[in-house]
Specification:
heterodimer, A: 477 residues, mainly alpha, three-stranded antiparallel β-sheet, 18 helices, 70% helix, B: mainly alpha, 15 helices, 2 strands, 68% helix
Chain lengths: 477, 426
C-alpha cells in the first residue's frame, strides 16, 4: 500500500525532473527562499543590535545629565526603542510600518516615530522579499504550476482509466500525487525551517516556533489539496490551470486587500491628532500643571495647608509646585491613557474585521497566525506602546517627587531671579539614576499561541474542508 | 477585418462562460476599488474639516488665556495638512504610510515634524485595493487569462485548421478576437474610473491622460499575450510563460530592487536627528546665554543688538535656543531627506523594468499621493514654520506691548497647489 503511494509520488517527481519548466521554477523558488531567509535575517539582526545600542545610549545620556531642576529633566525626557523579536527574521510583520522609537516626556504621550517604510525606495508597494512573503504568496503559485496537471494530465493522456483498471483507485492516486506535491512544498519550506532553528538559537521560544512552523505546514497542505481538487474536478489541463491561477489571485492578492478596505470603511478611526483635541479639552478643565496658581489647584492648596497646619505655602514642608506637578501628571495620564486605549481599541476593531476574512482565504489566516506567533502583530505593537507609557509615567513621577521633596518652594519660585537662587533650585545629578533597563520583549509564547487561536482555527478548518472535499471528489471520479 | 466579422466574433466570444466571468470580475473589482477609494478620500476630507474647526477654536482659546507673545507662541498649535487631490480616489498611494497632517508650534521643528499620525499598520501591511492596483497588477493577469489560449483552445478543440483555412485573411480572425476581448476588458475596468472621475471633478486633461496611459499599458500586455499565444504549445504552458513574466516584472523585480537599494544606500538614522536636537535644546538651559545667541545671530544678524537678557529667563532666549537646536540638527536632517530622495530616484532604475511599478508610480504622481508629494508637504510645513518664526521674532526681541490684535497678522497655513480641500468631493 505504502509502496504504491511512494511509487506514484516518485513517478510524479520523475515527470517534474523531465519537464524543464517545473524543475527551473522549483530551483528559482528555492533560491528566492534561501535569499529571503538570509537577507531578512541579517537585516533584522542589524536592526536589533542598533536598537539595543541606542537604548543603552539613551539611558546613559539621561544618567549623565548635569545638576538640574527636576522639571528640566521631565522635558529632557527619555527614549525607548522597540527591539525586534527573534522570529521577526522570518516574518517582520508590521515592523517596517510602525515607528521604532518613542520619545517619553512629561504631559504628553507621543506616538512612535520613524517607520522604515517612510525612508524606503517605495518599491515594496506589493510586498518585501521576506521569507513570509515567499512562503505565503510565491510557494502556492509554484505548487500550482507543478501540480495543476496531476490528475488532468493522466486524463488527457488516457492513462487514468488504465491505472484504474490496474486497481489504483482515484483516492489512492490523489494521495500519491499529493505526497509528491507536499514534498515539493516542504523542499521550498526547508530554508524557512532552517531559519526558524536559527531564530531558536537567537532566543525564540520553542513552543511558539513549533506552532509557527506547523501553521506553515498546514498552509502547504491546504494548497496541495486545493490543487489536487481542482485537477480532479477539471476536464482538462487548461481548465485546471486557469481555475487555479484565478483562485490564487483571489485568495492571495485580492481578498487581503478587500479585507483591509472593508475594515477601514466599516470601522472609522479618527487618528491621534483628532483625539488630541479631545484630550486638550479635558485638560483645560484640569488646570495647567506648570502654574500652581491656577484656580484648579486651590482646593489642593487649602487641604495641604490644613494638613500641615500652616498658613502660607512657603511654610509647607514640601514644595507645593512639585505636589501640583505630581497630581496633575497623574490626572493627565489617566485621561491620556483613556484616549489612547480607545484609539488602540479602534485599531484592534479594524484589524478584527480584516481577520474575519481568514475564514475565506488561507493566505489571510496564515498571515495573521504567522505575525501573532512571531510577535510582530498589532497586539505586540500595542504592548510596546503601553510599556513605553509605563516607563514614562514612572520616571516623570520620580522626578516630580524629587521636585516636591528636594527643591524648596521659595527657591523654586525665585529660580530666575539670580544665579544663586537659580543654582539652589537644582537637584544633584546623582538623582538621575532612576531609569531601569528597558528591553522590549513580545508577549510570552503561550500568550501568543492562545492569541493566534482564531487564525489557527481558520487554517485547520480550511484544511479539513479541502481534504474532505478532495477525498469525496476523488471517490466520485 | 470588417464590421460583420467583428459582430460575429463578439457574439461568439461574449457567450463563452469563462469570458463573461472574467469581464464581470473585472468590472466588480474596479467598482469596488473606486467605491472604497472614494469613501477613503471622503473620510480624509471630513477629517480635515473637523480638524480645521477644532484647531481654530483651540487657538482662539489659547489666545484668550495668554498675556504675552512668548506664551501665545508656546501654547498655540497650528494644523498643517495636505488634502487628497481629486484623482486620489483612483490611487491612494502612500498616504497611509506618510503623515499628511501635523499640529506644529514655534518650538524646534525637528522634534515635531517626524511625528506621524499614521493609519493602522496592520492594514497598511496588507495594502489597499485601489484603481491603480486593479489596473497595474490585476488587469494584466485578466488579459493573460483571456488571451493566452486564443489559438491553443481552438487547437485543443480540433478547430484550428478549419478556422485558419476558412478565414480570408489568415491572422485576421485572431487579431479580431484579441481586439474584442482586450477592448471589452479595458471598458469594464475603466468604466468605474470614469464615473469616479466625474464625481470627483477630475480635470479633463488628467482624466484623458489616465485613460490613455491605462490603454497603453493594457495594449502592451495584450500585445505580449497575443504574441505568446501564437506559440504552438498547450494552453497551460503559454499561460505559465505569461504568468512568469507578470510575476517577475510586477513582484520580483521591485522586491529585489528594494533589497538592493536598502543595502547599498545608508544614511543617518531618524533617531539621531531627534537626539541631536534634544541634546542641543536641553543643554542650552545650563549654558551661558552667549552659547545660544552667537549661533543664533549668525543666521539672524538683524537681532544682534537685542540679545541682552533682563533676567535669567526670557522668551527670546527660549525661542533662540529652539532655533539653534534645529540649526544643529540641520545637516543630519537634510542628509536624512536627501537619502530618502536618492533611494526614491534610484528606484526608477527598477521601475522601468517593472511596468506595473512604473504605472503605479505615474498614477500616484499624478494623484499627488506618492512619496514625492509627501516630501513636498513636509517642505510646506517647514516653510510655514519658518514664516511663524519670522512673525514672532520681532515681537519677542523688540517687545512691543502685548496686543491681541497683533496676532491677527500671524501667518496661516495654506495647503499646496491643487490639494486644497474640496468639500464637495466624495
Amino acid at each position: 500500500m505504502i509502496a504504491t503511494l511512494l511509487c506514484i509520488a516518485r513517478d510524479e517527481w520523475r515527470y517534474w525532473r523531465r519537464s524543464r519548466l517545473a524543475l527551473s521554477l522549483l530551483i528559482i523558488a528555492l533560491i528566492l527562499a534561501i535569499a529571503s531567509v538570509f537577507v531578512t535575517h541579517t537585516s533584522m539582526q542589524l536592526e536589533a543590535e542598533q536598537r539595543t545600542h541606542l537604548q543603552t545610549l539613551a539611558q546613559q545620556k539621561f544618567a549623565d545629565q548635569p545638576d538640574r531642576h527636576p522639571h528640566r529633566m521631565v522635558h529632557y525626557g527619555h527614549y525607548v526603542f522597540r527591539a525586534p523579536p527573534p522570529l521577526s527574521s522570518l516574518d517582520p510583520g508590521i515592523d517596517p510600518f510602525t515607528g521604532t522609537s518613542v520619545f517619553l516626556e512629561g504631559h504628553r504621550r507621543n506616538g512612535a516615530t520613524f517607520s522604515e517604510q517612510q525612508q524606503s525606495s517605495g518599491l515594496s508597494w506589493l510586498g518585501t522579499l521576506s521569507p513570509a512573503f515567499v512562503m505565503q504568496l510565491l510557494t502556492p503559485l509554484l505548487l500550482i504550476v507543478m501540480g495543476y496537471g496531476a490528475m488532468t494530465r493522466e486524463r488527457e493522456a488516457g492513462t487514468f482509466d488504465f491505472l484504474k483498471v490496474q486497481g489504483i483507485t482515484p483516492p489512492y492516486l490523489i494521495a500519491g500525487k499529493g505526497l509528491a506535491l507536499i514534498s515539493a512544498g516542504l523542499l521550498v519550506f526547508s530554508p524557512f525551517a532552517i531559519g526558524a532553528i536559527w531564530a531558536l538559537i537567537n532566543g525564540a521560544e520553542g513552543s511558539a516556533t513549533a506552532m509557527f512552523l506547523v501553521s506553515y505546514v498546514l498552509y502547504i497542505l491546504i494548497w496541495s489539496s486545493l490543487i489536487l481538487l481542482a485537477s480532479t474536478l477539471s476536464a482538462n489541463n487548461a481548465a485546471s490551470f486557469s481555475s487555479l491561477t484565478c483562485l490564487w489571485i483571489v485568495l492571495c492578492l485580492v481578498l487581503p486587500r478587500i479585507a483591509s478596505n472593508t475594515a477601514t470603511v466599516v470601522v472609522a478611526s479618527p487618528g491621534k491628532l483628532e483625539t488630541d483635541f479631545a484630550v486638550l479639552q479635558e485638560l483645560r478643565k484640569l488646570g495647567d500643571g506648570h502654574n500652581s496658581n491656577d484656580p484648579a489647584f486651590s482646593a489642593l492648596k487649602s487641604s495641604l495647608l490644613a494638613k500641615y497646619e500652616v498658613d502660607k505655602i512657603e511654610d509647607l514642608p514640601v514644595n507645593f509646585k512639585g505636589i501640583v506637578a505630581q497630581k496633575s501628571e497623574a490626572k493627565l495620564t489617566k485621561i491620556l491613557n483613556q484616549f489612547s486605549e480607545k484609539q488602540m481599541q479602534e485599531a484592534q476593531d479594524q484589524a478584527n474585521v480584516a481577520r474575519q476574512f481568514g475564514w475565506l482565504s488561507p493566505a489571510i489566516a496564515i498571515q495573521n497566525a504567522s505575525m501573532k506567533l512571531a510577535g510582530t502583530d498589532l497586539e505586540n505593537y500595542h504592548r510596546f506602546l503601553r510599556e513605553a507609557e509605563a516607563v514614562r509615567f514612572s520616571f516623570v513621577q520620580s522626578l516630580n517627587k524629587l521636585h516636591a521633596e528636594n527643591v524648596s518652594y521659595t527657591d523654586d519660585a525665585n529660580k530666575y531671579k539670580d544665579h544663586e537662587t537659580h543654582h539652589r533650585a537644582k537637584v544633584d545629578a546623582k538623582n538621575w539614576q532612576i531609569l531601569d533597563n528597558f528591553h522590549f520583549t513580545p508577549l510570552a509564547a503561550d500568550q501568543r499561541i492562545s492569541n493566534s487561536q482564531l487564525p489557527l482555527t481558520q487554517l485547520l478548518m480550511l484544511f479539513l474542508l479541502c481534504c474532505g472535499v478532495t477525498f469525496f471528489a476523488g471517490k466520485r471520479v | 477585418m470588417n464590421w460583420l466579422a467583428i459582430k460575429r466574433e463578439a457574439h461568439f466570444l461574449l457567450r463563452k462562460k469563462q469570458v463573461v466571468l472574467i469581464l464581470v470580475a473585472a468590472l466588480a473589482l474596479s467598482l469596488f476599488a473606486v467605491w472604497t477609494g472614494s469613501k477613503e478620500v471622503a473620510q480624509q476630507h471630513a477629517t480635515i474639516e473637523r480638524l480645521l474647526k477644532a484647531d481654530a477654536q483651540d487657538r482662539q482659546a489659547v489666545l484668550e488665556q495668554q498675556h504675552d507673545y512668548g506664551g501665545v507662541a508656546y501654547y498655540s498649535f497650528h494644523l498643517t495638512y495636505s488634502a487628497p487631490s481629486p484623482l486620489a480616489f483612483a490611487s491612494l498611494g502612500v498616504r497611509d504610510v506618510y503623515p499628511w497632517k501635523h499640529r506644529i508650534r514655534m518650538l524646534a521643528l525637528e522634534g515635531q515634524i517626524h511625528e506621524s499620525d499614521t493609519e493602522n499598520p496592520e492594514l497598511a501591511l496588507a495594502g489597499r485595493i485601489d484603481f491603480a492596483f486593479v489596473i497595474s497588477v490585476l488587469a494584466p493577469f485578466l488579459l493573460i487569462l483571456l488571451l493566452h489560449d486564443l489559438r491553443a483552445s481552438e487547437r485543443a478543440a480540433g478547430r484550428l485548421e478549419l478556422l485558419t483555412i476558412s478565414n480570408a485573411s489568415g491572422a485576421g480572425l485572431w487579431l479580431t478576437r484579441a481586439m474584442i476581448l482586450s477592448v471589452t476588458l479595458g471598458f469594464a475596468l475603466l468604466l468605474p474610473f470614469w464615473i469616479g472621475a466625474i464625481l470627483h471633478q477630475v480635470g479633463w486633461i488628467t482624466g484623458i491622460g489616465v485613460t490613455l496611459l491605462c490603454l497603453l499599458y493594457l495594449g502592451f500586455w495584450a500585445l505580449l499575450s497575443y504574441s505568446v499565444a501564437k506559440l504552438p504549445s498547450p494552453a497551460p504552458m503559454l499561460a505559465s510563460i505569461l504568468l512568469g513574466v507578470w510575476l517577475i516584472t510586477s513582484y520580483i523585480v521591485p522586491a529585489v530592487g528594494h533589497v538592493v537599494i536598502e543595502k547599498s544606500i545608508t544614511g543617518p538614522k531618524g533617531g539621531d536627528i531627534l537626539m541631536t536636537q534634544r541634546e542641543a535644546v536641553n543643554d542650552a538651559w545650563d549654558l551661558p546665554f552667549s552659547e545660544t545667541f552667537d549661533p543664533f545671530v549668525e543666521t539672524h544678524p538683524e537681532w544682534e543688538n537685542y540679545t541682552q537678557m533682563p533676567s535669567l529667563f526670557d522668551w527670546k532666549w527660549y525661542y533662540a535656543f529652539q532655533q539653534v537646536g534645529d540649526q544643529k540638527a540641520q545637516a543630519l536632517s537634510e542628509e536624512y531627506r536627501r537619502v530618502a530622495q536618492e533611494k526614491y530616484q534610484l528606484a526608477n532604475l527598477f521601475a522601468v523594468r517593472s511596468p506595473a511599478t512604473a504605472l503605479q508610480r505615474i498614477l500616484s504622481y499624478w494623484a499627488q499621493t506618492d512619496a514625492e508629494a509627501a516630501r513636498e508637504y513636509e517642505q510646506s510645513v517647514r516653510n510655514f514654520h519658518q514664516s511663524l518664526r519670522e512673525f514672532y521674532y520681532p515681537l519677542l526681541f523688540k517687545k512691543p506691548p502685548f496686543k491681541r490684535e497683533a496676532i491677527q497678522q500671524r501667518p496661516e497655513f495654506t495647503p499646496n497647489r491643487s490639494t486644497q480641500t474640496n468639500a464637495s468631493a466624495g
